Structures are given as C-alpha cells and as structure tokens.
From TrEMBL, chains A, B:
Family, similarity comment: Belongs to the gamma-glutamyl phosphate reductase family.
A single GO molecular function term of this UniProt record: NADP binding
Protein name in UniProt: Gamma-glutamyl phosphate reductase
Gene that produces this protein: proA
Matches recorded under Pfam families: Aldedh (PF00171)
Taxonomic source organism: Litorivivens lipolytica
Biological processes, Gene Ontology terms: L-proline biosynthetic process
This protein's pathway: Amino-acid biosynthesis; L-proline biosynthesis; L-glutamate 5-semialdehyde from L-glutamate: step 2/2
Compartment(s) of residence: Cytoplasm
Entry superkingdom: Bacteria
Domain Aldehyde dehydrogenase positions: 12-284, 307-374
Amino acid sequence: MTIQDTMISMGRQAREASRIMAALGTGEKNAALQAIAEAIDGARAAIAEANAKDLAAGRDNGLDAALLDRLELTQSRIDGMIEGLQQVAALPDPVGEISDMSYRPSGIQVGKMRVPLGVIGIIYESRPNVTAEAASLCLKSGNAAILRGGSEAIHSNQAIADCIRQGLAKVGLPETAVQVVATTDRAAVGALITMPEYVDVVVPRGGKGLIERISRDATVTVIKHLDGICHVYLDDDAAADKALAIAVNAKTHRYGTCNTMETLLVAESRAAELLPPIAEQMRAKGVELRGCEQSRAIVSDMLAATDEDWSTEYLAPILAVKVVAGLDEAIAHINQWSSQHTDAIVTENYTKSRRFLREVDSSSVMVNASTRFADGFEYGLGAEIGISTDKIHARGPVGLEGLTSQKYIVLGDGHIRQ
Amino acid sequence: MTIQDTMISMGRQAREASRIMAALGTGEKNAALQAIAEAIDGARAAIAEANAKDLAAGRDNGLDAALLDRLELTQSRIDGMIEGLQQVAALPDPVGEISDMSYRPSGIQVGKMRVPLGVIGIIYESRPNVTAEAASLCLKSGNAAILRGGSEAIHSNQAIADCIRQGLAKVGLPETAVQVVATTDRAAVGALITMPEYVDVVVPRGGKGLIERISRDATVTVIKHLDGICHVYLDDDAAADKALAIAVNAKTHRYGTCNTMETLLVAESRAAELLPPIAEQMRAKGVELRGCEQSRAIVSDMLAATDEDWSTEYLAPILAVKVVAGLDEAIAHINQWSSQHTDAIVTENYTKSRRFLREVDSSSVMVNASTRFADGFEYGLGAEIGISTDKIHARGPVGLEGLTSQKYIVLGDGHIRQ
C-alpha cells in the first residue's frame, strides 16, 4: 500500500468513526477520556522506554537542547497529560447545545444546534504530550481525529497512541476515532491536507515554516496560527503606573510566547515621561531596545529600529519602540504591521478605548491589560487547540467550540410553505 | 496592465477601503444604501438600455428562454432591487455587537465583538440584480466587495455598478468599497480566488460546475453551496395528514429550488397507507415517481430507481421514493446520500424527533416542517447571500452574520499576568 492509500484508508475509517462520535453522550465521552488517562497511567514504563528511544535518536541526530527538552516526557509531564485528560472531561460538552430558538411569522420555530465538525487533522512538532491533548479535545468535541506528530517523537507518540486505543476500546468506542499516523514519511502530511472528502479541518501546530507550507498546499480548511507580532500602545491618557506595569509584563513575563509584546508604541506627549523608566526596567531584565529616531532622542542607548523590526516576531528579549503622534497613528501602525494576534492600548480615555477596540483588526484587542492574557485558559475556554490568526471560522484562542459548527434546526407541527 | 495586475490593484484598493468600511457607523452605512437606491431609481433608463444590449446579445448567442428571463431587468425587478436595498438598510447592524463579556478569576473581563471579514469576493451568473443585492449585504456588514457577474450580463452589471459608485460617492465613502469587475475574461475569476492577501472569502453563486471549479482552484476560503439533495422521512409515528401535506409541499411548491425534496423515505410500517395518496397527488401535479422495489410493489406505475436517483438533484418534477425499515435506515440513507443541505422527519414521536435532529448531519434539520422553509428570509435573517453546505464558518442560509467574524476583547484596569 502506498502512503497515499494508507492515508485514504485512515481518512475513510475516521469519517465512519466520526458518525459514531457525533452521536455520543457526554458521559460516554468522559468515560473514554478517563479510560485513556488510566491507560497512560498504567503504561508509564512503556512510554518512558519509547521516549528514551526518541531522546537517544535526537541526541544522535544533533537536536539542540531546547528541542530535546520539548521532546522529553518526564514523569511530571506524564502526570500533566493525565491531568489534562481529566480537565477536558470536566469541561462542559459543547455538542448538541441548542440556542436562539425563536418562532417565525410562518409558525415554525428556528434555532441552531452545535455539532462536531467531523474529522480533525492535527499536525504538530516535537512535543509528544500534544498527542494526548489533541486527542482529548477532538474526542470531547465529538470529532474523530487523525494526528501526525513530529518524526523525532515517533516512538513516544506511538506509545501514547496505544494508550488512546486501549482507552477507546475499553469503553466500546471505535479505535479509529483517534488515529496516530505511524510513518515519518512527509508524504503523509501531503495526503492528509488534500483529502477534503475525509478531513474537515486541519490544525497545524508548530513553527511558521510548517504552517506556511501547510496553508499553501492544503485543500482542506486550515485553522492556522502564524506569528504573534503584538503591540502595546501607551496613549496620551495612559495612567503611568498601568503603562509601566503592562509594558514590562507584556514583554518580560515570557519571551518565547506568541502573545508577548514585540513592539511598544508611545504617544508623543508622554514619551519623555514614560520611556525612561520603561527602558530602565527593560535594561535591568536584559531586554535589548530598538527604537525610532524620536525614542532614541529620549533614550540614547537604544539601537536604531528599521522597518524589519516592525515586522519581526523576536521571541526573544528584544523590543522595538516607536513614538507615534497619537491614537490614529497607533491604530494605523498596528493595522499595517501587526500579525493580528493581540494588541493592547493603555488609556484612561473612554472614547479612545472604544475606538481602539473597534478599529484594531486583531484576534484579541485589549484595554489596560497585558497581551500575555491572550490564552485559552485565561479566557476561560478550559483548553486550547491553538490560537487562530485567521478571520474565518475561529479567531483567537480555539477551544472545544472552535472544533464545532452550528446547524439550523426547525421545529414545526406540520407546517408547509405558503 | 494584465488582468492579473488589474485584479491585484482592485484587491489592494478593496483592502484599503475595507478599513474605512469596518469603522463606519450604522447610520452612515444605511445612508449609503439609501443613496444607491436613489441612484438606481434615477438611472432606470440607463439600466434598461444596458439591459437591452445584454438581452440582444443573449438572443444572438442563442441563450435559452429561461436564461433570457433571468437576465431581464423589468421595471418591477428594478423596483425589487430598490426595495432590497431599503430592506437591508432596515436590518440590524451586526458589526460591533459585543457578547459574552464575563469576568475571569484574574480580574480581566473577556468577551467577543462581531467584526467584518474584510473583503468579500462574489462570483455569480446571469441575474444582474445580484449586483445590487450582494453589494448591499457586503456594505451593511462593513465589508468591501469585489463582484464578478456573468459575462452575459456585463452591460447591466456595469450600469448598476455606476449607481453603486454614485451612491457611495454621494455620502463620502470610497467608490472602491464595491468594485464590479469590468472584464468578461475568465482570468479575472482565477485571480480573484487566488489572492488571499486581498480577499478574505469568496462566495460563488451559480451552477454546480462553477462552484466545483472555484472550490478546486481557490486558495481563498470559499463559502460554497453545492447541490440540494433534500429528504423527507415519513416515520412509523407520522401523523398521516402532516406526512401528506409536507411531502407534497416539499416536492411541488417549487421544482427548481435547492430546498426542494428530491427523495422521499417512508417507514415500512406506513408505506402501504401513505404512498398511494401521495402518489396520487404527485401524479395530479405531473411529478414522475422513481421508486425502490418495495415502493413499486405498492404503487405499481413508479419507474425503478437506481443509486443514481439517490444522488441526483433533479430540480424538476421528479421524485425518488424509498421504503426504509425505520429511523435507523432513514438516518443512514440520509447521511450517505444527502448533500447535507436540508432534511426533515415527519413524526409524533418525541425520542425519534430528538434522534433525527441530533444525528442527521445537514445544514438544516427539521421536524414536521417542509424542507422549503430552509431560506434566509424564512429563518429571519432578513436577507441571504447564499446557503452554505459547508461546515466551516457558516452553515445553512448565510445572512449578514455570515459575512462577519468575532474577535476577542479584553477589558482590564492595569491587569498583568502573574
């Protein structure tokens, strides 16, 4: 069988399983999640052994320390997978939720019912715990899943896949409801993203290169998360203490996350007051500052920023700084350079806060809060399969609801159209 | 300039205009709609003249009577365009609507704001009144639009486009907010559906061939409506009068519409009672019946149905009929053969109605109502840009809300992440 054939066969089985998954009750899905958690708990030794193989191969192949760290399944990370499964079991079930049922003049009652998407393909890189996490979200939302992890984690992923199959089988569900691709051949990804008859949506999780490649080649809908070039704008009417706290938190709370601020915008009227203390705190934390001419006139040891800085996701202790005339220029800068992930204003002005919320076209727009809050857990989604920087279907943090859709339901009593 | 260049330039202008449109107030958008309606009213002679050119060309090119009828802009159809614009002006504005604002344990308040998608591409066939209709829906939902009508309606579409430009200019909005492609070259469509940097979503309206071609080639998201193979299932527990009325209405109210029933499923226990009177009424209306073996044993003058009948959208006075064992077989048949447009059950049984609603995976699922109700106006959307048989983003009738998305908004008082 070619890889293409294998993937089509997996797709067909996933499609069949998806019909069973869609009709399941909440209790059945939660029992499956619990059974998978127990299977993982009972297979700690096997998982550790498989993970050791991946780690050894990774070291042989010269993976760097950060990648090896992401790859490692310590006992506490295995605990984390088990807890994650239990947390997803505890989340409300979105499937079957009925809303907006209203009567129409014709006499019919019309509303919407939330339903699973069907089959979700997830493509991810090194972290093998994503296998359990992605499986749990797809399962709870009533979908079937085809998971394709990174080749460097193949043994770990297969060990976790064994546990998922055991858990599904234990509660009488089809093992094909969650399939983990067993080959490391890249052709499997190519097939997965080009079979819309079997796969309803693909969620790539990983570096920008992976996501761009998948978006370009996919014929299946992609829920994608490209970069996070996030801004904080300190308005003329910013409260100084909030401005300082939010700027420092948004940049330095963590450097490698997508909701970290990469560019700080400051209103001209406040730059001389606000930039020096911010620069001082940034300097104390080892953050390199790259500023426009006006900001360098205030804080002289900044490097000169270029257009490339406005469009770079540093994921590092580097911050671009720009002085703007006011709200209009701030919004224009953001709508030109932002990756439409998360942008925040610090202001005490009612009208300007309303304008910023309305006119900034990003998946999360904030007033007087750190961009670091843009996160499924912080938003109360319970879990997150990714953060979408797209506008179609799902925007911002994607939880269980993002893996569902709504159909119309119509209730009548023999109504016919006149 | 090549057509590719022309389209890119239109796309860039649309993207710029979309930022202005997104920030408009409801009153400004309604004023634009009113100004366009007045411009059309004042240009009746010019529109009629342009339409006469298209009709003459159509006759020369041997268009059939049905196509010529769709192409014609009578005075009453021009009235209809004007009323349509006024109706869209009267609809609630979806943009800026804030929902689900709740406080999180961290102290931030999180919710969603409805926002325009950005730039909508609409590709449609012969009916030139779609130009005004599509423009009005895109405008009211705060989007910019690029419209590409059928080549046979090019003069009519351009005359309407003139009115749209006049209306936009009169209220001080950019004329590039609604652009109507002036060339009949097919390369324009190819360009429009492959520039995701300028176009956020494409809505094709027309025959299955057009939609399949666009879906295959598009890199922009497509809200598509393929065929309408709709079913009515008469359950063991159907009330006979409702079964008869709904079956006859769903098939014979109109033959050429996508929400017309194409296959009737009847529970075995009721077939002998229900099929003869239905067949009699269908016969009286000139509907050709094509049945499975069991139904032909009851109504002897039916033709024999083949698998092709289960998968055909007749759009004609033809009905496929199948006797099924009961609810399970009905659902299985529908989930196998339905185009996931609209399917209905007729039953008095509570549990079976709940199962049908939950397990039939179609964009509209109905109990005791005619499939002919699946329509944006009947559902109270006020207007409809199309009916989506997809699951992603929008399902079923797509109104103003389907041309929008939701972003997260976060309100804080200086909150930082711990």
